[in-house]
Amino acid sequence: MVLKTLRLPGNNLTGTIPTEIGNATQVHELDLSSNNLAGMIPKAFGRLTSLVKLMLNGNHLSGRIPSEFRSLTDLEYLDLSTNKFHESIPGILGHLFRLHYLNLSNKLAQAVPLELGALV
After folding, report:
1. 65 with 42: CB under 8 angstroms?
2. Between β-strands 101-103 and 60-63, what pairing exists: parallel, antiparallel or unpaired?
3. pLDDT of residue 88
4. How far, in Å, are 21, 27, 28, 53 from residue 6 at the CA level?
């Protein structure tokens, strides 16, 4: 059996997201929203190449959005809002051509990268 969907919103999960999450390479939907997760998004997310929907909103995640997200070419829905990201928006998100929903409502620095114009 292969895990395709993992939904754990609003479960008061604490700590950091384990790097082992990258082993769930067949997951299509990952919802860890509205918890108390902190720290950075693991670079191991780059191995989740089957991911279509990713919701990490409503946590205490910080640092930068990993450049490894460039591997998430099937991603259609990305919500990273209401976290503590403060770095700039990575231009690699503009190369996720299937993306039709993107919410980055945080205190991100700098201007919107020109690459995001490719999503229109």
Report:
1. no
2. unpaired
3. 73
4. 11, 7, 8, 10
Residue 48 has which token pair? Answer: 């989740």
pTM of structure = 0.88
Other CB atoms closer than 10 Å to residue 30's CB: what's the count?
22
Burial class (CB in 10 A: 0-12, 13-18, 19+), 62: middle
The answer to whether the beta carbons of residues 61 and 86 sit under 8 Å apart is no
Third-level CATH fold of 5-119: 3.80.10
Mean pLDDT value of segment 27-53: 97
Find residue 109's DSSP bridge partners. Answer: 88
Retrieve residue 43's tokens: 């670079």
Looking at residue 58, its amino acid is G
User: Is the distance from CB of 54 to CB of 72 less than 8 angstroms?
Assistant: yes
